[in-house]
DNA sequence: TTTAGTGTACTATTGTGATAGTACACTCAT
DNA sequence: ATGAGTGTACTATCACAATAGTACACTAAA
């Protein structure tokens, strides 16, 4: 498996998220053909039926387009992909805030945590790949 | 239900976490008796069998103590509870870093996110409830 | 002793995720 | 036309979470 699975959540949901994240990271480009159901099943080490379900649901969401007999393709709409980045970022941030808030932490614990975050993200590459207008606030989703 | 359930994860796991978080927040004190299996089932709006499983697993972990015919009680060991706070905090932080990192965000997006976090946590009460030695680093777990 | 309130054990049923295997319809290049 | 490679449909099976209902053993107070 190319990524770690959470045994407490359905595999097909995690693979759906993994495919979206790959598109967000540019591993899958807009319009690019995805591996076939059978190939993706081998890569993910799951049953082809599970991948079939993943593709069916992603198609339902409009994230991929399936052409019978030809294959499945990432949407051509790059804004659709960027929207996923925004959603993932906003969801992760809000969940983190909720998780931390409900722990009733001390100020010191919060400060330790925030400084670790700064350190973790200071390794950003420094090149802002956004166009300016294309940069969305991950928190507000605007 | 007193809290929101994630439909993609087993209920019994989420209730286990909820009980631990209540202890961390002081809603349940060390040694305090928990509601009976049947009462907790009513409060959580789930089947008593589900709560029975929750108590069984929490007993297995040493987080609660069950005395047959008497009831179930939060552990007397307050350091056991504090350890949960540390674990939840560390897990939430690491997951957040992983979630954000794999989105390949721009510097601006990361800055927006961090400033939202600062704003969210600036509302801390200012009183450091730790004793000094009792303050654990949520990130390293030491 | 009786009774109410504990946790616990048990069977049965339902729904869903995941697997295994087979088969079919479509597309495209040969 | 043939055949390889697509997605898709179908049945069957298994595991697990969750529910429903019943029953039992223990504890403590009336």
Describe this structure in words.
2 copies of one chain form a homodimer. Chain A has 142 residues and is mainly α. In chain A, strands 1-2 form a two-stranded antiparallel sheet. The two termini of chain A are 35 Å apart. Chain A folds into 2 domains: 11-74, Winged helix-like DNA-binding domain superfamily/Winged helix DNA-binding domain (Arc Repressor Mutant, subunit A, Orthogonal Bundle); 79-118. Chain A contains 5 helices and 2 strands. At the A-B interface, α1, α4 and α5 of A face α1, α4 and α5 of B. Chain A binds a DNA duplex (30 and 30 nucleotides) through α3.
Instruction: Please identify which CATH superfamily of the largest domain in chain A we are dealing with.
Output: Winged helix-like DNA-binding domain superfamily/Winged helix DNA-binding domain
At the first level of CATH, the class of the largest domain in chain A is: Mainly Alpha
Summed up, the domain count of chain A is 2
Q: Helices and strands of chain A: which structural class?
A: mainly alpha
Terminal CA distance of chain A: 35 Å
Reported for the largest beta sheet of chain A, the result is:
2 strands, antiparallel
Helix and strand sequence of chain A: HHHEEHH
Beta content of chain A comes to: 5-15%
DSSP helical segment count of chain A: 5
Record the strand order, biggest sheet of chain A.
1-2
Assembly category? homodimer
CATH architecture of the largest domain in chain A: Orthogonal Bundle
Helix content of chain A: 40-55%
Work out the radius of gyration of chain A.
18 Å
Average pLDDT metric of chain A: 87
Largest interface: A-B, 46 and 47 residues
- Low-confidence spans of chain A: 125-136
Number of strands of chain A: 2
Gross morphology of chain A: elongated
CATH topology of the largest domain in chain A: Arc Repressor Mutant, subunit A
């Amino acid at each position: 498996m190319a990524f770690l699975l959470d045994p407490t959540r359905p595999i097909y949901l995690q693979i759906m998220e993994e495919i979206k994240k790959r598109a967000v990271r540019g591993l899958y480009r807009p319009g690019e053909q995805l591996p076939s159901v059978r190939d993706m099943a081998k890569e993910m080490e799951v049953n082809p039926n599970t991948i079939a379900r993943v593709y069916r649901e992603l198609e339902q969401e409009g994230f991929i387009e399936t052409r019978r007999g030809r294959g499945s393709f990432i949407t051509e709409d790059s804004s659709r992909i960027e929207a996923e980045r925004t959603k993932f970022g906003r969801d992760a941030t809000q969940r983190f805030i909720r998780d931390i808030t409900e722990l009733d932490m001390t100020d010191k614990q919060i400060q330790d945590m925030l400084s670790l975050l700064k350190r973790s993200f200071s390794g950003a590459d420094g090149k802002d790949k956004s166009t300016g207008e294309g940069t969305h606030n991950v928190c507000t989703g605007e």
